[in-house]
Design goal:
Blueprint: E1 5-7, H1 8-16, H2 23-33, H3 41-53, E2 59-64
Parallel strand pairs: 1-2
Helix pairs in contact: 1-2, 1-3
């Protein structure tokens, strides 16, 4: 696995390129891709789950998601 994502926008944009992404996952990631506001704990958690599910690097602890 590569280097961890430090910004949620980058993680979301990378997930959008995954071919096995479901429609619901894509809608969630599309919303996060250009979101300027901080993520809620629930959003950050789901983003971490999706990154793991699709074999991508994790969101760094203390990254720009709070």
């Amino acid at each position: 696995m590569g280097e961890r994502f430090t910004v949620h926008n980058d993680a979301a944009r990378t997930l959008l390129a995954v071919k096995s992404l479901s429609e619901k996952e894509g809608q969630f990631c599309g919303g996060l891709a250009f979101r300027a506001a901080p993520l809620s704990d629930k959003q950050a958690n789901w983003l971490r789950i999706l990154l793991d599910r699709h074999g991508l690097p994790a969101l760094a602890e203390g990254g720009e998601h709070d």
